[in-house]
From TrEMBL:
Its EC number is 2.4.1.-. It is an enzyme of class 2 (transferase). Pfam families: UDPGT. The lineage of its organism: Eukaryota, Viridiplantae, Streptophyta, Embryophyta, Tracheophyta. CDD domains: GT1_Gtf-like. This is Glycosyltransferase. One of its GO terms (molecular function) is glycosyltransferase activity. Keywords: Glycosyltransferase, Transferase. Belongs to the UDP-glycosyltransferase family. InterPro entries: UDP-glycosyltransf_plant, UDP_glucos_trans, UDP_glycos_trans_CS.
């Protein structure tokens, strides 16, 4: 790394108040610390308390600093992340995020006080549009770290390209040929894309936040790599006229095939014990994240589709936000079709408790992943070479699903283009295409090729080394 290796940086990391963002930021912190740099990780007290522990050998170089959360009307006390509220209240969490600007200013003032080292960088998330001017007042440069698929930002476009409403059901001209024509929103998803351009309860639209932080920072880092998104980083650099740098997938390579990251007092989790008794690559793992806006009908059709497919499955069941179960009953048993668990007993396991997802995907019994296509889950699946059955719901998930379908690593569940509804037959057909039919061998082979690429730790380290070089190179750039 030359000069970059000799320059030790002091970097402040400030993620959005969602664990799907905080965890990748923590991985970025660990990689910076492993290279000898000092990191200050900012969030609120409850969020910091819920983060995984920092490895002992890195903890001297990673400092967790709690900023006091503001009171926001409509947010319950103690709600400090999107995990604490139903999806419709995420806009209020953004308002709370904006309320952290004053505590951040106080933190930075103290950090640059006489006799103390001024931070070299503030690296922050899409939501923190108020941070660059505060950091600039203290002569601290900012970079953006976006944990989304880079192609999504390219699709939504820079400010100059979105001056008028566009058809989100078609790939924009400015994205071609980096994005194929199939990568676009469906009609039932386009409402989310339109909504991203409209002010929400925080008073600011998500796209205005994103545009401001890209325009007011020196460069943008993505949790991705050229092998996953060929040509997209050059496209973004050209579109936004700012350097766009892939950091690699930031996956912690410490879970070996079949290992268990959920050991507690030497006890292997029941989920992994169940997988131990299943034949190799016979199980489809089903998990739709913690914030998917599922309905009772969605749950029923998904369950009946798994039953109809006739394959073994492990379902990490999450009760949808705002959906209640009868007092004293099991959440899954109360919300799934009558008799479903009895009829599928022996080949299926519905698990309402915590599931060690990385260890599950690493397990030899798992042959595919039925997923909502969150970017983190998609990366985890491909790191272990698991093909995808895709059931996207919100935000960038539809674009991720189309991108992965183009890469030949999975299929989407068929849906009504108008209202987004899906049925058991569509679920069963998609599952069988990947798990049972001859075509599944092609998906599995392509996923294995992705595993080889994403599992190349030397290549992934090179991406991170380039991020450090950029932090050194652009630190004193006054442009």
């Amino acid at each position: 790394m030359g000069d970059a290796a000799a320059t030790k940086l002091d970097v402040v990391l400030f993620p959005w108040l969602a664990f799907g963002h905080m965890i990748p930021y923590l991985e970025l912190a660990k990689r910076l610390a492993a290279r000898g740099h000092a990191v200050t990780f900012l969030s609120t007290p409850r969020n910091l308390a819920r983060l995984p522990p920092v490895p002992a050998h890195l903890s001297p170089r990673i400092r967790l600093v709690a900023l006091p959360p503001p009171a926001v009307e409509g947010l319950p006390e103690g709600a400090e992340s999107t995990a604490d509220v139903p999806p419709e209240n995420n806009e209020l969490v953004k308002k709370a995020c904006d309320g952290l600007a004053a505590p951040f200013a106080a933190f930075l003032s103290d950090a640059v006080a006489r006799g103390r080292r001024r931070p070299d960088w503030v690296v922050h998330d899409f939501c923190h549009h108020a941070i660059p001017p505060i950091a600039g007042a203290h002569r601290v440069p900012c970079a953006a770290f976006l944990i989304v698929q880079a192609a999504t930002v390219a699709f939504l476009g820079p400010r100059w390209a979105r001056e008028a409403p566009e058809d989100f059901a078609a790939t924009p001209e400015w994205c071609r040929p980096a994005l194929p024509p199939a990568v676009a929103y469906r009609r039932h998803e386009a409402g989310w894309a339109v909504g991203a351009f409209r002010p929400n309860a925080s008073g600011v639209s998500d796209m205005d936040r994103t545009w401001e932080i890209i325009e007011r920072t020196r460069f943008t880092i993505y949790r991705s790599c050229e092998e996953m998104e060929p040509g997209v980083f050059a496209l973004l650099t050209d579109l936004f006229r700012k350097p766009t740098i892939p950091a690699g997938v930031l996956f912690q390579p410490d879970v070996a095939e079949g290992s268990d990251s959920s050991h507690s007092a030497g006890v292997r989790s029941e989920v992994l014990q169940w997988l131990d008794s299943q034949p190799p690559k016979s199980v489809i793992y089903v998990a739709l994240g913690s914030e998917a806006p599922l309905t009772a009908n969605n749950l029923h059709e998904l369950a009946l589709g798994l039953e109809l497919a006739g394959v073994r499955f492990l379902w990490a069941f999450r009760k949808p936000a705002g959906m209640s179960s009868a007092p004293g009953t099991d959440a899954a048993g109360d919300l799934l079709p009558a008799g479903f668990e009895h009829r599928t007993r022996g080949r299926g396991l519905v698990w309402s408790g915590w599931v060690p997802q990385v260890a599950v995907l690493a397990h030899a019994a798992v042959g595919a992943f039925l997923t909502h296509c969150g970017w983190g889950s998609t990366i985890e699946s491909l790191v272990f070479g698991r093909p995808l059955v895709m059931l996207p719901f919100v935000v960038d998930q539809g674009l991720i699903a189309r991108t992965m379908a183009e890469r030949g690593v999975g299929v989407e569940v068929a849906r009504d283009d108008g209202d987004g509804s899906f049925g058991k037959d569509g679920v069963a057909a998609a599952v069988r295409r990947v798990m049972v039919e001859e075509e599944g061998k092609v998906f599995a082979s392509n996923a294995e090729k992705m595993k080889e690429v994403l599992g190349d730790q030397r290549r992934q380290d090179q991406y991170m080394d380039e991020v450090v070089r950029c932090l050194v190179r652009y630190k004193d750039d006054n442009c």
